[in-house]
Design brief:
single chain, about 475 residues, alpha+beta, Cytochrome Bc1 Complex, Chain A, domain 1, six-stranded mixed beta sheet, five-stranded mixed beta sheet, 18 helices, 11 strands, about 45% helix, about 15% strand
Amino acid sequence: MTKKSLRRILQSMLCSASAAMVSWPVSTVAPATAATLQKPLIPVTRDFTLPNGLRVLLSEDHSVPVAALAIVYDVGARDERKGRSGFAHFFEHMMFQGSENVAKMDHFKYVEGAGGTLNASTHPDFTNYFEKVPSNQIELALWLEADRMRSLKVTPENFKNQLETVKEEKRQSIDNQPYMPAAIKLEELLFDNWSNQHPVIGSFEDLDAAKVDDIRAFFKIYYAPNNAVMAIVGDFDAATMQKLVEKYFATIPKVEAPPKPSVAEGPQKTPKKTTVVDSHAKLPAFWLGWKAPPRRDPDGPALVMLEKVLASGESSRLYQRMIKGDQVAINADAGYDSRRGPGAFEAFVVYKAENKIDKVQDIVWSEIEKLQKEPVTTEELEKARNQYLRKYFSSSGYSSLQRSLGRAEMLAENTLFYGDPKTIDEDLEAVMKVTTADIQRVAKKYLTRDGITIVDIETVAEGKEKDKEKKDKS
């Protein structure tokens, strides 16, 4: 799964040492085919479901004395209703505010005190929590996760404190970050269905309107064993681990299956465009976006490879043309943001102020049209495959198979989304089978002029200059 979201595109631009901006020589990884890949990529020792509906996957790995636990709940921003946006993300914060046997923020104290790490994240279509600990401390992680699934404390005090925390997070990570308000605007404009278009972090108005009873109801609906999948990977005995899972989780009651939102999107037949004046941006920029198919669509693997050819590394087409060649931009990136519902293919360019925006966008279009008119070279396809393999096999990759946590998260997510951990192998195999003709086909199909959404980003100085020009003409 490609997770190159709007935020990650920005991070790759802001962090000059980001691996996303480093070229990946073809010779670094031997050419891979579906036949040469190990199957399964992540061996599952045990796969069972408790009577309350919690599905659990165990994968033994005795190479190092650590264990990772990932639990994924089937709830994200798309499950929210109008007037209550931001609840999924807000609840991620609430999950660390204490439960029946664990005091506020002691989840961190227990795990870190045992030599482990932990975190959580909210997405449009899921929320995940994880711990990575020395293997002799994995029972602690089980107890902590079970206790808050069973008996989270949602008090007025905790609610008020976290409400202010989330609002401050929104100010710091979005409102006061260059180009981020425009990134939010892109998704709001690109998608027509509110379930897909509203931001994960929500709005101040909706957060302020929320009541503590709303949060309690949200917990009751979505944070139940039959709405989650848990994966544990590491140095343990599977039979013993299954007994521990049953000990801590089996008595948590299941609930009625929560409703599933409609995330359907109609085709876009005419371009959409808007302008955002960004008080934090030092240089002008623009976002381009197209609706794209959901994760595991037959066209998804080719879009993954298109992303690599177009914008991954210094040898990519956009970098070579816009930064090294024409020297009109300081950043030129693109990515396929895949989700279970409709996804998006996005491009983000920060360009030098002496250039006209139409000229810079024409360069992007010229590179897209090259992809549409003739197949990429076999060398480019080989490089793209190697770049994709890096995320699985490089020790520095977040989803690396060398990391027990990366394996646990992949197992939990794929099983929650599609009911079968074998989809991990199937997805990698599908990407390795992409041809140059496939890349050309999806470039023609999705990156159209009629289906584009554009958000131009002006600096304050640029906006003032345009206002002055309008006044002078009038």
